[in-house]
Amino acid sequence: MTIDPVNFTAILAMGVLTYMTRILGFLIADRLPKSGPVRVALDALPPAVLVAVVAPIVLSGPIEAVAGLAVLLLALRLPLMATVVVGVGVAALLRLAFL
């Protein structure tokens, strides 16, 4: 098996850049204000990232939309892990029933 130097360099560079973004996050976090608009913006990041990741999946088909609706309704009442398990279960059962 041969390793293409261009591919190896690209993979190595992506790994270094990924690691650097994580390290810079720790280094910069100490310098950010702990209150005010910066804090409000930082508190809004986790739900925004979650929506950005989940929305394309939920909008990709009717089964995913039904599972997303079930998760949305249950997320208000159940803990996170239970919500994830129910969402995966609903999607699996619907796929099994309609495929």
Describe this protein's structure:
The chain has 99 residues and is mainly α. The protein folds into two domains: 1-31; 45-98, no CATH class. The chain has helices spanning 5-29, 37-58, 62-75, 80-98. Helix 3 runs antiparallel to helix 4 (80-98).
Q: Mean pLDDT, rounded to whole units?
A: 88
Rg from Cα = 20 Å
Q: What is the helix content?
A: over 70%
Alpha-beta classification: mainly alpha
Number of domains: 2
Q: What are the SSEs and their pairings?
A:
Blueprint: H1 5-29, H2 37-58, H3 62-75, H4 80-98
Helix pairs in contact: 3-4
Short descriptors:
99 residues; mainly alpha; 4 helices; 81% helix
Brief summary:
Helix content is 81%, strand content 0%.
